[in-house]
Amino acid sequence: MAESTHNNKSRATTREDEALLRADTFTNAPKVSRRTLTREEREELAKQQEAEDKEAARLAKSHTRGPLGRWWARLQSGPDRFSWGMAIVALGVVYGDIGTSPLYTAQTFLSGQGGIANADREAVLGMLSLVFWSITLITTVKYVLIAMRIDNNGEGGIFALYSLIRRRGAWLVIPAMLGGAAFLADSVLTPAVSISSAVEGLETIPLFEPLFEENTSLTLMITVVIILLLFSMQSRGTERIGKVFGSVVLVWFSFLAIVGLVNLSNDWSVFEALNPVYGVKFLFSPHNAAGIALMGTVFLSTTGAEALYSDMGHVGRGNIYFTWPFIKVALVLCYFGQGAWILKNQNNPAFADAQTLNPFFQMMSPNVRYLAVVLSVAAGVIASQALITGAFTMVSEATRLNWMPHLQVRYPARTRGQLYIPVVNIVLCVATLAVLAIFKDSEHISAAYGLALTITMITTTVLLGVYLWYQGKRVWAVVFTVVFLAIQMLFFVASMAKFLHGGWFTILLTLAILFIMYTWNEGTKLERAQRRHMQPKDFLPALDKLHGDFRVPYFADNIVYLTSDCEMKRLDTDIFFSIFADHPKRARAWWAVSVETSDEPFTREYSVEDFGTNYVFRVRIRLGFKVSQSIPAYLHQIMHDLSKTGELPKQKSVYPKVDADPGIGTIRYVLIHKALMPESKVSQRGALSLSAKYAIRHVAGSPVKWFGLAPYNPLVEVQPLFVSTRRPPRLKRTDVAHPAPVPSVDKVSEAAAAAAKGGADKPAA
Fold first, then answer.
1. I want to staple 76 with a disulfide (CB 3.0 to 4.6 A). Which of 18, 81, 185, 654 is the partner?
2. What predicted TM-score, i.e. pTM, was given to this entire model?
3. CB atoms within 10 A of CB 117
4. What domains does the chain contain, in order, with CATH numbers?
């Protein structure tokens, strides 16, 4: 009977074990493959290797073709290399903003001078001279020839520049933050003003005039639809967008050059404006009706220069060098062609009473104007794209500097610079739509446009001057800083005239972004001032005792802490005190895991430090920038690997688990956040910074999703942040006047023993 019962129990246990082992039939939990690369990744790497081999063969062959061939080989082997494909991408990603400037620069000039009748030869040549030399000095000299030679691992932009010189002075954080905040503010306004102004060009087509007259809000509705489509395309990557846009931009700039040349054939003398004397004389001439505000108009021709620098990491420096001469020639021909048309029609009675006159459209025949409007709409979309990609780059750089929260970044294209940040994309889209809701049309939006960009240009000049100074080029640094600050301060003063007409919105948006960066930076400094680390001799005795203390039940078989500390030979005190907080978290193994992102696309590596134990592990995982953060699946692989080598004792789960892995025990993930204690000695500014940082983190989202932990119910702990705490005064008891002293435990025991002895000595009654 007993034997039969035993056999039944054995069969039940076997059936139970079999059911447990079949848990994977009821769940599709992610598991790692036996290969370190997917089929798609292997194919992509093979294509890249094939392309590199072909390029190497071409370069080797070029060496036999004389000095020119050797120069070409050196060029293609360095950071200035270019390719036809990426050159087309550069056209679409980089030049959209500056390519829309001819649409409104000359129009704004005529409005400032009081109409075409007041735009005599002196005025036209002065305006053309200022435009030409502004493009030459600001865009060509400052950004293309100087700034783009200064990069941080191929990345450009004001944050990348600051990271190169941050050790030269703490004050440099001020221009860096201010310039970055202004650039991001301009990234909100550019899509609104570029697309709305281009769509409004549809109203000039006679065929559509009745439709727009009946529906006054139709322009705004079309603009909103285009903006929504544009932002929805960002997740596909700027490389795919750039190839489509690049072809359009190539047609657009060719169109600008052709229409400019057609009008220049009537008056080639406008090229006298290449002499800078014409511009300086007219700026300070009494015939200049706009006064110093003329520089605000001239500045419109340089918008997009800062985006060109910040997008360098997306397309490569060599591709911008290769395409910029074509872009500049096309712009100059278009501007000078508009100048020639103005001089030809200055006394034309048909334009004498025109309220708003746009030379760009007027210098074309009506049939050509249809094509111009269509291309201008496309150019407006492309201008927005340049600023959106620039904003992604700036936010990524700010995150590396710990000026913004660590947001989820995706890399939808083959190159490291092609990034997409979903949260930033949503914020930009909502903010752009809010601008349209507030200002309604491009005329009112343009009042706020450009002011923030002048701030970014000024701060970039300061940082470039500091960089040149510490590179030993001190004379050039002084000349560069003085010359470009003088020019850009004129732009800033002229742009400030727009403050009450919409510039206030730009400044307000800039200050809001600056507040986020400043408070996040200050809060991070305070947290790091409190952070402490423990060496193995400090934490191992306590963990060893807890590991073997069977009076404490297991919290989980494995407790995994995600940490930003990548040092393998120490343990963060936050993790240590989390283990012992409240009720000790006993486990078969504790894990401190950090994740690094490498510059290679498909890296999958890990390293382990066990401190000579089989229950404490420091793990560092290195993932390529295109590899998803599947931390749970990778940790299961690491645990199995360590179990096979004997570094981790065998674990076997008794009950089914959602991860369907019976070979590894239960896993609990823990993330630690900080909270400021009321006893902390921290200034009011510091307390505000910490409160703002935690509020921003709450809105931006926890890293739970980034690590892929959301389905596994991770534990998010809040630990006190002790920043130089102060001792509060002692409490005073008020319920009794003279409380009797409370006897200690030892004295109470002695008194009880004496009483017992005395009772024993008494005679019985």
1. 81
2. 0.74
3. 16
4. 84-524 (1.20.1740.10), 533-720 (no CATH)
